[in-house]
C-alpha cells in the first residue's frame, strides 16, 4: 500500500507520525476535525440543567413527602445528566487524533497522501517506494558498502521530489480531462494538442527518474546476491581441509571431483563479482544523484 510521502525538511519524529496515520490524514482532508467546536455547553444539556434547577426550586416550595420526592428525583436526574455529559466530553488534549491534526495543520504542504495522486501516479509512486525499501533493506546497505549515509539523505529527497512532480502532473491531467469533455472542434483540438504533448513529455521525464531508481535497486539486489554467495562459498572453503583429509585417508583422490580443487578460485571470483556489483551500484547512484 502506498505510504504517506513527507518532505525531508519535516522533523523526523513528526514525519514518522504522519506516515503512520495516513487514514487520519485522509479524514482531515474531507473536513473532519477532532478539535472541539467551542467551549459552550450543548443546548440539550443547558435545557436539562434548567429542568433540574426547576425541580430543586419546586422542592423548596413544598413540604413533607412531596419535598423528599422532588429532591430524590432532581438528584437522579442530575446524576444521569452528569453521566451523559462525561460521555460526550471532547477528546482529551493529548489524544492521537488531535496530535496528528495539529501537526498536519502545522506542516500543511509538507506531506502528500494517496488522494493527491491519480491512479497512474499512484502506480509510479508505489514503484518508487518499493525500490527504496529494497535498497534500505539490503545487507550491503546495512554493512555500509553503499554509502548508507548518503542513501539516508538522498533517497527520501528523491521520493519527495518524484511525489511532488506526480501530484502536479495528476492535478494538470484532471484539469485537462475536464476541459476536454464534450465535443471538440478542430480549433480546440489543435489548441489542446501542444498541452497534451507537454503532459506526455512530463510523464516520460518522471518515469525516467523512477526507472533510474529501480535500476539502482536492481544493482543493489545483485550486490546482495553476490555477498550471500560469497558468504556461502567462504563457509565451504573453511571446511575444505576436512574434505581433503577425508580423501587422503580413504584413498579416494582419484575419485574426487576436479572442481573441489577450484573452490578457492571460485571464492575469489565471487569476491570480484561482489566488488563489481557494488561498483555498478555506486555508478547507478551517481547517475541518480545527477
Number of helices: 11
Distance between the termini: 29 Å
Q: Indicate the overall shape.
A: flat
Question: In total, how many beta strands?
Answer: 2
Task: Work out the helicity level.
Answer: over 70%
- The low-pLDDT segments are none
Main beta sheet strand tally, sense and closure: 2 strands, antiparallel
- Widest beta sheet: strand line-up: 1-2
Whole-number radius of gyration? 34 Å
Write down the overall mean pLDDT: 77
Query: Approximately how much beta-strand content do the residues carry?
Result: under 5%
Class by SSE composition: mainly alpha
Order of helices and strands: EHHHHHEHHHHHH
Explain this structure to me?
The chain has 290 residues and is an all-alpha fold. Helices cover 74% and strands 1% of the residues. It has eleven helices and two strands. The chain has a two-stranded antiparallel ribbon. It is flat, with a radius of gyration of 34 Å.
Summarize the structure.
The protein has 290 residues and is mostly helical. The protein has eleven helices and two strands.
Which labels suit this protein?
290 residues; mainly alpha; single chain
Task: Please write out the topology.
Layout: E1 5-6, H1 12-20, H2 22-29, H3 43-60, H4 64-87, H5 96-106, E2 111-112, H6 119-136, H7 139-142, H8 148-179, H9 186-238, H10 240-250, H11 263-289
Antiparallel strand pairs: 1-2
Amino acid at each position: 500500500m502506498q505510504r504517506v510521502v513527507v518532505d525531508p525538511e519535516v522533523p523526523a519524529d513528526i514525519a514518522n507520525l504522519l506516515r503512520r496515520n495516513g487514514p487520519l490524514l485522509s479524514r482531515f482532508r474531507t473536513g473532519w476535525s477532532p478539535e472541539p467546536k467551542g467551549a459552550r455547553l450543548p443546548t440539550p444539556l443547558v435545557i436539562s440543567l434548567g429542568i433540574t434547577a426547576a425541580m430543586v426550586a419546586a422542592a423548596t416550595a413544598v413540604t413533607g413527602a412531596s419535598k423528599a420526592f422532588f429532591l430524590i428525583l432532581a438528584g437522579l436526574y442530575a446524576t444521569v445528566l452528569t453521566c451523559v455529559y462525561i460521555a460526550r466530553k471532547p477528546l482529551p488534549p493529548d489524544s492521537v487524533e488531535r496530535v496528528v491534526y495539529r501537526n498536519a495543520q502545522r506542516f500543511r504542504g509538507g506531506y502528500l497522501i494517496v488522494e493527491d495522486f491519480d491512479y497512474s501516479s499512484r502506480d509510479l509512486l508505489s514503484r518508487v517506494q518499493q525500490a527504496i525499501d529494497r535498497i534500505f533493506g539490503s545487507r550491503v546497505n546495512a554493512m555500509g558498502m553503499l554509502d548508507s549515509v548518503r542513501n539516508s539523505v538522498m533517497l527520501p529527497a528523491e521520493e519527495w521530489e518524484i511525489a511532488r512532480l506526480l501530484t502536479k502532473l495528476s492535478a494538470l491531467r484532471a484539469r485537462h480531462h475536464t476541459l476536454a469533455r464534450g465535443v471538440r472542434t478542430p480549433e480546440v483540438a489543435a489548441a489542446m494538442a501542444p498541452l497534451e504533448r507537454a503532459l506526455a513529455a512530463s510523464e516520460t521525464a518522471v518515469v525516467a527518474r523512477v526507472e533510474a531508481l529501480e535500476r539502482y535497486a536492481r544493482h543493489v539486489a545483485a550486490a546482495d546476491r553476490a555477498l550471500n554467495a560469497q558468504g556461502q562459498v567462504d563457509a565451504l572453503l573453511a571446511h575444505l581441509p576436512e574434505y581433503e583429509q577425508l580423501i587422503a585417508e580413504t584413498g579416494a583422490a582419484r575419485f574426487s571431483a576436479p572442481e573441489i580443487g577450484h573452490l578457492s578460485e571460485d571464492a575469489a571470483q565471487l569476491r570480484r563479482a561482489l566488488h563489481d556489483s557494488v561498483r555498478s551500484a555506486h555508478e547507478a547512484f551517481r547517475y541518480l544523484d545527477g
